[in-house]
Amino acid sequence: MTSCLLSYGQDKEIDQNHPTTEDMVSKIQTDIDPEFMYEYQQTKFVPPEGKTLLIMGQTVEDISEYRAHFKGQPTPGGWSAYWGIPEFSGVRKAHKNETGASQDHQMLVEDFPNTVIQSAMWMVGKWEVAKNAGKGQYDDVIIKYSNWAKAAKRPIYLRIGYEFDGVHNELEPEAYVKAYKHIVNLMRAEGVDNVAFVWHSYAAKPYKDYPLSAWYPGDDYVDWVAISVFGHAYGGTDFGPYCDDVLAFAKAHHKPVMIAESSPIQGIDKNSNAVWDQWFVNFLSFTYQKNIKAISFITTNWSKASIDGISEWKDSRLNNNAQVAKAWFKETNKARYLKQSPKLFKDLGYLKP
Description:
29% of the residues lie in helices and 16% in strands. The chain is built from ten helices and eleven strands.
């Protein structure tokens, strides 16, 4: 960190062989780079200055296991869930995919009052999904989702075509932008006002090396900019040029930044706390330094996910390691992190009808 950073922490000598929870947390650099403290424009549901919204995910099974292991811990401020634009599944009722993982937005509404939902809409270039969305082929699904969202009566952060620039999604910018705008216009026409629209970059080498700006639908259509953080955090707090580009773009367009997906993909070992220094310290220090306004952490066993391209990802459940989990909660239980609360919606600027 340079001397221009605003420091809210102090150095402490640590026993590297037998670190306490306090020792582990003290390694997090809580400096905020003034460069990332800027005014936001044309956005919604942004935490107050000095606050970060805490979200956890990402399947019904992951969330249930998390709650079972950490009953004494505060409920996060929100939960993440997924669905796909071609069909209205996993929203109003549970849907289990071929891997055995389930999604259920409505369960999150019913079981967790005073929390938000971070909703990920799957939309890719393959199978002409994005093209069909832009042509209105899935309008009936969007209308059903709009009706559900209005009935939820809570802030919803909708990631339209999440990781739009990821090579794995094969999204052509023109088709993506057209589909994104069509979806937002339709939801607005349906009277949806409790959804913040999130433009989520993979923050890695982009599909066909298109420039980031090629996928941008415009300030009027974007409330938040988001990134994914997986392997990024293993090399320190410099997450690379592609991540830097997204953060600079967000600042130029006066948008808050969310880490929409994050996980230590090399796993959380049951018998070693090494992942804390190797990933968590960097990840959490980055969130302070870059003034990240929301983080979504995925606690899951990636080796059982059966997702193309991640065959080497490992078991990253927090409950694998009690000491790492204690350090995580020692940090995230700070007042900085917005969690479930009767005043959460007010803090986010949402007035429940």
